[in-house]
Design a protein that fits this description.
Distance between the termini: 32 Å
Helix content: 40-55%
Radius of gyration: 18 Å
Shape: globular
Structural class: alpha/beta
Order of helices and strands: EHEHEHEHEHHEHEHEHHHH
Strand order of the largest sheet: 1-2-3-4-5-6-7-8
Number of helices: 12
Amino acid sequence: MTTTDPARPFGRVLTAMVTPLTEDGTVDLAGTQELAAHLVDRCAHDGLVIAGTTGESPTLSDAEQRSVLEVVLDAVGDRATVVAGVGTNDTAHSIEKARDAERLGAHGLMVVTPYYNKPPQAGLLRHFTSVADSTDLPVMLYDIPPRTVVPIEVETLVRAAEHPRIVAVKDAKGDLGAVAWTLARTDLAYYSGEDMLNFPLLALGAVGVVSVVGHVVGPRLAELVAAVESGDLVKARAVNESLLPIYTGIFRTQGVILVKAALRELGLPSGPVRPPLVDATPEEVAQLRIDLTAGGVAL
């Protein structure tokens, strides 16, 4: 099910969903379906991003990613937008993954900036447009230079926006000026991809969020988006301030580690992380409980 609002091609509140694992480290497909249904049916999510960073895509095989996408679509695909993370640092591989996602019924694609090989801007543009050319699905670019090293420059985004299927950006660049210029020069729909900057990005004109903390505070993120959209910035600021302990708490170490710990605390499917990540220590979990409580999450 895809959104009918062209200004918000993937909805307002999406979570970059973890991939639940069993204790022996295999993918927990039943738990994946349970978590997806919980987020959509009880936590005010318009959609889910599957096999992104928070889904531990670097340590999931292509076959595992296909299985996760398939069961999530089966669980919630009739009532939520399901976006498949298909970006790699190999254009041919990304195209293959994009076509697989389309065959399985994904509603959209997320394509991260190629990492490690540090392509120039011309290489980024060719990569993004090649993937967008390979299917009929709408594409969200994922701009996260803290992980990929190379930012997507404004001029590159302006040119990418000329492609009819490149319709959105998940922004985790931390450069509000670049976001403002891109919004002024394109019709790209912006989604906050950095939870601490949700409020300022929404105030600049972002249409929604692709969140990690949405696993535990989805309804409050929906409240934040609605407050900004209605022009009630006083209320939006209050909601944002109430979420600060959650934003800080989940990212005291790598986000997947602590959001999986938070889900365990809430009795929801999560399981361990895969190496080279390591599970939260008892001390980290104790601090997480303090942070969640301070942010209004009942444990």
